[in-house]
Every structure is written in structure tokens, then in C-alpha cells.
């Protein structure tokens, strides 16, 4: 969808849901910082390398996947440290789980050590957030570190900045897909963690996530509520949809 349509739909969805928090994109805690830009570039480069090597060398691709998670842990930890939230205090922990950086710090730590295969959808979401952060806040610092970036992707980064909302919705869709994929490709415990912790707090704190859930429910509803779809299947879809909503909002 177009960026203006996304903004309008997010506003409408937020109005329907009540007084919810504003869209919470990954915060550039220090715009133009070489450290932030370097971590964003590392995330993007590792993602591209992982996709390429997954075809020819799955074992090396797994190492790159772990490195990608480590880079995101560093990125999230840096943001939380600057916000004064990396402290062993109950109030800080409560605040962390409602922050983008805190949610991804926990997620990536779990995935780093969990017995689960690399998840392309999570990599996609992380890469989208890194690209958006470079386009919106770190472009100058990133180009200073990697001058060829301006020639190769300068215009594309401008386009990313203009279509920021649409891309962040796509990242939220990737997060939702990753949770369901985990249930069928890895540990059930990990899948449950993603569903009950990560997506729950993403839904509660991020309007892009709310819009992604609403969009997917609408698209799937066209299939399951179709007259040719058996009533039993439609009823099961209703139960799953209502159960997911209750889990996210309770």
C-alpha cells in the first residue's frame, strides 16, 4: 500500500482500538553516530551474505545468522544504555519490555542460543529496520564510512525515507510470520515465546504491528469467510483470531 494510505489506515485503526501508543519505529538514539551507522550497515551486509551463502554453505550461513543476531543485540543494547534502561531495577525492566530495543534484545538473545533454524522472516524484519534507520537518521554517517553507498543506493535511501511507514508495516508482517514459522520448524517453546512475549508486547506498544494484524486478518477473512469455505474452518479461524487478540491485549 501507498505510504499515505498506510498512515491513514493506521490512524483509523488506532481510533478504533482506543487511546493506544503512537507508532514506535526503532529509535535512532543518536542520529548520525558512526557506531549506530556501523551496526546498521553490519546488519544489512550480514543479511545479504547470509541469504547468498545459505545456498552454497548452510553451515557458514548459520554462523552469519548468529552474527546478525549479535549485531542486533548490540544495536538494541546501545539504545537502551543511552536511555538509561540497562539497569538491574524492576522499573527499568518494565520499561524495557515496552520499548522496541528491549523487545528485540530479548528476542535476539533467545534466538542466539535456541535450537532453531535461521528464520528468514526475522532477518527480513531486522534488515528493514536497519535500512529505515540509515535512510531516516544515519545516512550521512553511513556514507562517510562507506562512500560507495551514496552512488549505489543514495536515491533508494531517499525512497525508503519517503515510504517509511509502508516498510515498517512490512517489518511487522515479517515478525508475525516468524512466530508462526517457529511453531512448525523449531522448538515449540521458542514459538510460544515469540507468540506470547514478543508479539504481545509489539502489539501493545506499536501501531504498525496493530495495523499488520488487522491487515492480515482482513486478507485471511476474505478466504475463510467466503461462502464456499466450510463453516467449521471459518469457526476455527474465528477462534484463532480472537485468541490471538486476547493474548495480545490482556
Characteristic terms for this protein:
single chain, 250 residues, mainly alpha, 0% strand
Could you provide a short overview of the structure?
The protein has 250 residues and is mainly alpha-helical.
Helices and strands in order, then pairings?
Elements: H1 3-17, H2 34-56, H3 58-82, H4 90-96, H5 100-113, H6 120-145, H7 148-162, H8 164-185, H9 188-205, H10 207-224, H11 231-249
Helix pairs in contact: 1-8, 1-10, 2-3, 2-6, 3-5, 5-9, 6-7, 6-8, 8-9, 8-10, 9-10
Question: Could you explain the architecture of this structure?
Answer:
- With 250 residues, this protein is mostly helical.
- Helices cover 81% and strands 0% of the residues.
- It has 11 helices and no strands.
- The protein has helices at residues 3-17, 34-56, 58-82, 90-96, 100-113, 120-145, 148-162, 164-185, 188-205, 207-224, 231-249.
- Helix 8 (164-185) runs antiparallel to helix 9.
- It is globular.
- The two termini are 30 Å apart.
- The model is unreliable at 17-23 (pLDDT under 50).
Low-confidence stretches: 17-23
How many E strands? Answer: 0
Q: Structural class of the secondary elements?
A: mainly alpha
- What's the N-to-C terminus distance? 30 Å
Major sheet size, sense and barrel closure: none
Shape type? globular
Radius of gyration: 19 Å
Note the total helix count: 11
Mean pLDDT: 81
Fraction in helix? over 70%
- Work out the strand percent: under 5%
Following the backbone from N to C, one meets helices and strands in this order, namely HHHHHHHHHHH
